[in-house]
Amino acid sequence: MPIPVLETSRLWLTPLVSEDARQIQQCFPRWEIVRYLVNTVPWPYPEDGAEFYVNSIALPQMEKGQAWCWTVRRKSAPEELIGHICLYDIPDNNRGFWLVPEYQGQGYMREASIAVTDYWFNTLKRDVLRAPKAADNHRSRVISENSGMRLIRTEEKHYVSGWLMSELWEITRDEWNSRDQSPEAR
Do residues 167 and 154 lie in contact, with contact meaning Cβ atoms separated by under 8 Å? Predict the structure, then answer.
């Protein structure tokens, strides 16, 4: 099944393509973005890091139906990639994202997370979504809390910035579909 473009009130989430590597390479290798990512992300980020990630990791996983990846773009400037969000068919790691720091704190990733989480549950028909994160990544934690997820486990993991406490957050399809979706709750 082809991965669709997802739309929110302010965003286009477009399926990742090879040509996106150039923009990812320009905006991704920043400490503010990578510090809370798992240590499999190379740091310092190599000059061909985005090309390798897109063409050798993400796109092959997408073709196998093991990942669903989108770029995050504002409707007001659709040519500019401001982030990336993925769903993964990996136990205890079903959703991950990053956003360029200049666009953080404006609700963009919350919108993107709602759209892809709804896709996970209501298109892919998955029963549970689990999202790991560094405990110090407060913005990511707020997104999980505000979407009705609950903390189910903590442990220490190796991130780009070193060994940190890590949290695993979870929500079920029934919980997702029964949450209050009124404008006041968003």
Answer: yes
CA–CA distance, 113 with 124 (Å, rounded to integer) = 15
- Per-residue model confidence as pLDDT tens digits over 73-108: 999 999 999 999 999 999 999 999 999 999 999 999
Q: Which residues contact 176 (CB under 8 A, 6 or more apart)?
A: 117, 118, 121, 129, 147, 148
Q: Are 74 and 91 in contact (CB under 8 A)?
A: no
Length of the chain, in residues: 186
Side-chain-facing half-sphere of 150: CA atoms under 13 Å: 7
Rounded to 10°, the helix 108-122/138-146 angle is 50
Token pair in block for residue 162: 């070193």
Looking at residue 77, the DSSP 8-state letter turns out to be S
pLDDT in tens, 112-141: 999 999 999 999 999 999 999 999 999 999
Q: What percentage of the chain carries pLDDT values higher than 90? A: 95
Return the CA Rg of the chain.
16
What number is the average pLDDT over the span 5-15?
A: 98
Spatial distance between the Cα atoms of 145 and 136, rounded to a whole number of angstroms: 14
| Cα–Cα distance for residue pair 176/122, rounded to 1 Å | 10
Can you tell me the distance from the alpha carbon of 131 to that of 94, in angstroms, rounded to the nearest whole number?
6
